[in-house]
Backbone:
């Protein structure tokens, strides 16, 4: 019966409301206050990522805390297959492996609901993981951090940088802040980049990862005080 109701309404000439997009983009106003809030959020996410060993679990909390998906939703990985980036000599040196040691490559997108929050390039040493971990990484789209969580790994950040700042350099010293209150703040696709080494508690490195966090980490409405 429920399936017949929309058809009956349509036949009666009653317009149905348009389906709501799964990931409708929120509107951040292009105001100084909204720009300050966007920068504060980026700095908060950056600090959380730097102070935790698992980026996946950090994004789980970010997703839940900012209601990017229904309650209970966790980060899922979308593995991009048929891609390969051989490990450079620098990566091999960072992982402390010789030129003959096999290193595998994985490229995944980490998503929360319909929002892709990050892309990760990951080079790892399969000989330093368990057979079960390698099987999961080879045959499923599991996030790397979840697969290797039993190792109780530690993360050592090699570099962390904001790729975009909502505020211009020198804003705190009086530099003008670009703002058009009637316009939407343009948030780029790439906001933060981290490069890190994952190692066992006794210091044996097994993975180097480059993570790029996307504009979707701000895919929620700005706080009420930052709206016009």
Residues:
């Amino acid at each position: 019966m429920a399936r017949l109701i929309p058809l009956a309404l349509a036949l009666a000439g009653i317009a149905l409301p348009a389906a709501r997009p799964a990931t409708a983009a929120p509107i951040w106003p292009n105001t100084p206050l909204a720009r300050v809030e966007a920068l504060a959020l980026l700095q908060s996410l950056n600090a959380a990522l730097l102070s935790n060993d698992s980026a996946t679990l950090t994004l789980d909390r970010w997703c839940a805390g900012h209601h990017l998906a229904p309650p209970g939703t966790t980060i899922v990985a979308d593995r991009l297959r048929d891609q390969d980036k051989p490990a450079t000599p620098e990566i091999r040196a960072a992982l402390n492996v010789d030129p003959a040691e096999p290193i595998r490559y994985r490229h995944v997108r980490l998503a929360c609901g319909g929002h892709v929050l990050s892309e990760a390039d990951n080079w790892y040493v399969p000989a330093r993981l368990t057979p079960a971990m390698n099987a999961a990484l080879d045959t499923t789209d599991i996030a790397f951090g979840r697969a290797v969580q039993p190792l109780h790994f530690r993360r050592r950040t090699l570099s962390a940088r904001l790729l975009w700042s909502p505020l211009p350099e020198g804003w705190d010293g009086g530099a003008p802040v670009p703002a058009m209150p009637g316009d939407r703040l343009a948030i780029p696709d790439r906001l933060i980049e981290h490069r890190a080494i994952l190692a066992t508690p006794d210091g044996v490195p097994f993975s180097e990862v480059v993570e790029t966090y996307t504009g979707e980490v701000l895919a929620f409405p700005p706080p009420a005080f930052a709206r016009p």
The longest strand covers residues 115-124. Residues 27-220 form a domain with the Chorismate lyase fold (CATH 3.40.1410.10). The chain is about 25% helix and 25% strand.
